[in-house]
User: Fold this.
Amino acid sequence: MGEGIELKTEVAHSARVYDYILGGKDHFPADREAAANIVAYWPNLPASMRANRRFMARMAHHLAHDLGVRQFLDIGTGLPTAPNLHEVAQAVAPDARIVYVDNDPIVLVHARALLTSSPEGRTTYLDADFLDPDAILGSPQLDQTLDLDRPVALSLIAIVHFIPDDAEVRRIIDRLMAPLAPGSVLALSTCTADSAPAEVKAGVAAYNANGIPLVARDKPRVEAFFDGLELLDPGVVLVNHWFPDAESAAVDDAHVHMYGAIARKPA
Ligand SMILES: C[S@@+](CC[C@H](N)C(=O)[O-])C[C@H]1O[C@@H](n2cnc3c(N)ncnc32)[C@H](O)[C@@H]1O
Assistant:
C-alpha cells in the first residue's frame, strides 16, 4: 500500500459497502456491518446493484459499438469488478481510451488492476473528487489520455446519489460537459424510490444512519440532469429496461431502484 494512503477502515465507505454487497473482497468489518444493517432495511439492494452493474456494461457496449465512442471519462469508478468499463469498450474497440476517476483511497490502491489496457488503447487512473471538476479537467492524466476535440462519454454510474443537492450535481455536470466536443455523451445512473417507495425510503435512511449520505430521486429530478442535452432512446428508465438483455428483462421492477439514461451533446 502506498505511503500516506489513509483508508479510514474504521468507518463504512460507499465503495467498500458496494463491493461487499456485490460479492467482492475489498471491505472491512465496519463496511460489512453497515452493509448488513442497510440490507436488513433494503433487501433488494443487492439485486438493484447487480442490475446497475449490468446496465453499465450494456451502456459501455452500446456507446462503443453503436455510437462509435472511443473515449470515456468514468467518474466514481468503484473497485474493479468484472467486467470493468474499459474491458467492455476495448472488446469492441481495442483503441478505446478510458480515464477512471474516484476519490476513495481503496480504489486508488487497486487502480493498477484497472490499468490493464489493450496495447492499442489506454487506461489511466485519477485520484480526484467529482465535486472538484476543474481538478479533473485540468489533470495531466486527462490531458495525456483524451482528445477533447473528439467525442467523450462522461460516465457517472451510481455516483450522483451521494450528492443530495441537485443544483450542485447540475453545476458539476455542466462544467464537465462544457469542454467536451459535440457528439459527446453523458451516461448516468442514480438511485430512485419510484419502483419501491417504502423499501428505498427505509434503505436510504439506513445508509444515512451509517454515515453515508444518499438520496433517492424521482424521474423528473433525474431527467433534469440531462437538460440541454439530447436524451437518447429509451430516455430515463429503470436500468433493467435500458436495452435489456435476457437476464435484465427477467428482473422484477420492484427489485430495481436505479434510473439510467444516456444523452448527447448537440452540435
Ligand atoms: C456505488 S459505487 C459505483 C461504482 C461503479 N460506477 C458502478 O456503478 O459499479 C460509487 C463510487 O463513487 C465513488 N465516489 C463517491 N463520491 C465521490 C466523489 N465525490 N468523487 C469521486 N468519487 C466518488 C465511491 O468511492 C465509489 O467508488
About this structure: The mean pLDDT is 94. The first strand starts at residue 71 and ends at 75. Residues 117 and 123 are 5 Å apart (CA to CA). The pocket of S-adenosylmethionine is lined by residues 14-15, 18, 52-53, 56, 75-78, 102-104, 107, 129-131, 157-159, 162 (CB under 6 Å).
